[in-house]
Amino acid sequence: MPPVNVQAIVLRRRPLGEADKVLTLFTREMGKISAIAKGARKPTSKLAGATETCVQARFHLAQGKTFWIVTQASVERARARLHRLLMNAASAIYVCELVDRLLEEGVPDEDLFDLLSGALDELETSDRPMWSLCLFENALMLQQGYTPVLDTCTRCGKPVDGEQIAFHPDAGGVLCASCARTATGTVKLSRLAWLTWRVLNAGGQADFPGEPSAGELEHAVHLHLRYHLDREMKSTQVLWQLRQELIG
Ligand SMILES: [Zn+2]
After folding, report:
1. For range 115-142, the mean pLDDT
2. How far is the CA of 160 from the centre of ligand 1 (A)?
């Protein structure tokens, strides 16, 4: 294969040998691939800056025996401010890890690329990293086709409304008050949290709903994501542990 020039986000990097790195790259053009950046762990290496997690760069790659080899890289978005804020950095690393788990090797997904790139930009400056993370997790679920049912009861089909709404992650949506009485494993959403979620799922821009509604929605969205991804991916346990350790 001839050398290629791709736009990519570094999802993960691990050390190799004395000074090299193995990168997991999410490229716009070729999807997820692995590449070796030789000497990139030396502080003086020209590749050092472009080969850190969350960085977006343009990579020149040559085909090696089993991996691609990075021959040149120019940073497009360093997202250097990210690492000044612990919570923002932890959220960004989790987001990259999540996308890494979700992607199959070599399958391009431009929508997901743009979603991830936008989320990392947002996290770099966000005053509310948990809320930014919630918006990303929700957008990811919509992009993957797991839109929760929020307007009618997932058990009996009746329209749902009220001051408190029960969300049932296993059912992929909400329950009416009468069905919620006999269900286990539901989480409560305030009316504001529920309305905010509906706006987001209709493709609208929702204002930050304030606490405690934001916290309720963050929790419900994450449970929704977990339910679907646990069924889809084999090794989510480590990922949820990582999220717990990083973000709480
Ligand atoms: Zn019902």
Report:
1. 95
2. 8
